[in-house]
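Possible regression after last week's pipeline update?

I re-ran a chain I had predicted before the update to compare outputs. Posting the input and the new output here so someone can diff against the archived version. Not blocking, just want to make sure nothing changed silently.
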Amino acid sequence: MNRIAVGILAHVDSGKTTLSEALLYQTGTISKLGRVDHRNSFLDTDSLERDRGITIFSKQAVFEYKDTRFTLLDTPGHVDFSAETERTLQVLDYAILVVSATDGVQSHTQTLWKLLAKYGVPCFIFVNKTDLDGADSPFVMSQLKSRLSENCIDFSKQGSEAFFENIALCDDALLDSFYSDGSLASDEIAAAIRSRKVFPCCFGSALRLDGTEDFLECLYKFTRQNDYPSKFGAKVFKISEDSKNARLTFMKITGGSLKVKEVLRSPQNKDGEKVQQIRIYSGENFTAVDEAEAGTVCAVTGITFTSSGDGLGFEKNAALPVLEPVLNYRIDLTDGTDVHTALEKMKILEAEDPQLKVVWNERLGEIQVQLMGEIQLEVLKTLISQRFGFNVEFGKGNIIYKETIANTVEGVGHFEPLRHYAEVHLLLKPAERNSGLVFKSNCKEDLLDKNWQRLILTHLYEKNHIGVLTGSPITDMEIILVSGKAHPKHTEGGDFRQATYRAVRQGLRSAESVLLEPVYSFTLEVPSVNIGRAMADIQRMYGTFDQPETVGEYSVITGTAPVSEMCDYHKELMQYTHGSGKLSCRLKGYEPCHNAEEVIANLNYDCDADTQNTADSVFCSHGAGYNVKWDQVQSHMHLPCALPTSEKIKAAGGSNSYFSSYKNKTDIFAADKELMQIFEQTYGPIKSRNFNSSTVGEVKSATPKKESVKKTPRYEGEEYLLVDGYNVIFSWDNLRELSESSIDGARNTLVNILCNYQGYKKCEVILVFDAYKVKGNTREIEKVNNINIVYTKEAETADMYIEKVSHRLAQNHKVRVVTSDYLEQLIILGNGALRVSSRAFLSEVQEAEEEIRRIIS
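New output (post-update):
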């Protein structure tokens, strides 16, 4: 008999559980149809599910149709329990996606679709509730094609020429077969479905058993069992407990077979544990079997070392869920329960639900839980009372912030109390947004033995590293081991743990940290009369949105907004739309915090007072260890700085330290071939002229003498030059004339001129162009050769951007701003920056060009 594992997924209230009931009833698995609203459905067995009328925990049922045994896995539809759905996807052969004919494709439906694509699960679509008023099957079909895939095909008219032709258009091989035979074989269609080239769509009403039998036949006809290897393998997708508190490990056998009394092992548990019982669940009931063959979904007792996502046998561990919790709550033990007992019990729930994160905050001495939303919180409260017999309350929910860095730094950790020694150098580099943390080694083995390097990487992985702004977890960076040192006698494993932790922290203290906040991607549907209020609310919540779409009497807005601003908005929405508005949110990821200064001040985290996460190092002198503050560590460290040359220049503070490594400026230009190429492209080839050292200083300028420009005094540290691009273009005669025929040409010429200028002056150049009139434009920043170019976002002028940036930079750096805007010059002076008119800057540039010509000639 064939074995097929099929999961059923949907946006909440689409009728997913009702369809499950219909399939079980029509195959004779159950004798009576249950209903969600009657609290007697076969799969929603938990009292919490029946009370709330929603699926919270994934369940399974087994039904047979003809010569195929289907294992149906019912998953939660509510976004708060999305992780329960995601981990189930890893064991599916096929999926059934249920879409309401009255609601169409919702935001969460699209999230589920992306997850199905991520795990490569073939999908059948059932459009439910076609019997209700407002159901529009043709419109939903068009939505499926536009929002999910063009390869969604209506299977309600199987066998017709149009049916075969629509399928054939999904794949070249099918098209060839169709043209040669005039039809397509079932095996060909099944293979296309299996490879996610075709997505069958059926229509009906599960509550009335309308279209469900045809859908069941479609499943049977176009699904195929996997070819499983003979070697044992299994994927663990769920951990729970039965009514007698026995631990259940739910898994799918993906190769060979599993027998009772067989020993299962993992890399962490090499002795292994013996399988006591194998259960095949269907609803609340189960059948005990002696052996589970490949393709079987079962629960195993006697195994305690597994967790959700683990692979057994030849299977590898699965990746962590994409859907992360974004809210953090403090647990208050209201009935005097011991905190250690409560923490132990909470860890049991964490093992069962990977989306639930249980954290012991040692600094505050409290248990904290991280989860998705209020419904999950209410369920958790009831679950704790029912399972463990103690009561809890939760403090006010806080947003889970994260931190990253904006520049590359070297972090150094040194740990050398008496008879101990370790030094670690780490390179901390900013990475793409929402990429997480990546740890790797780029350290030579002749400098540090490979075993020590592995140990350092282990210490990087084992700790939840926190940032220095708010104490939030760090993310979106590469941490690379670049150097390290051990003592032949005095180094122990714990020494490298201390040095590694301190190196990470010292690097974070040295870097420019950025606070990140979670951001929702939302779809908001309101009556058209409320569209003005909705758009004003989104702007008030610091959100962005696309042009609203009109669908009948409703307007639909899609966009993004911070979780902190939008998490409670559904209550307000219900009030001003009188219950007719709809809001669907999904976590888009993390972006720079819109009110970072306010959040940092409110959280009041003192990184210097956090002794558990110190950035200081310990050195030894005269037989005793002494503490060295983080900002003095590099002057005490035993190994040289490991930053690349370009980063050393930047870290050293600008042009003075850069020029000190060369004997004269001729060496600089000889070393920088790219700068020479840019200069010659802009001004033409340089003809070599020979000068002796005594006459170099007497070379006269080839251009008329300009009005002398008073040189500003040199500052220690990094110098920034902000240039208002269009102001300069329309102030310089040659660029203005060029702009009349080609504004792009004028921009490119200015970029090349500034590249030459920066190469000579070695300051940080930021060139800003207005894009504030560009509809929907977001701020773009790009690096061209050695300068940064900024295109402002919609409704943001170059003046506005320069004003904000100069205010921030002028606190610690020398900042000059090139603009001829008088009002902007006054604001710049107030910010502590130096103003330079466009005309005066032209003289500076021309002098620099002449100096470059003199040097390289």
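Follow-up from reviewer: compared with the archived run. Confidence is low (pLDDT under 50) at residues 648-675, 688-716. Marking as no regression found.
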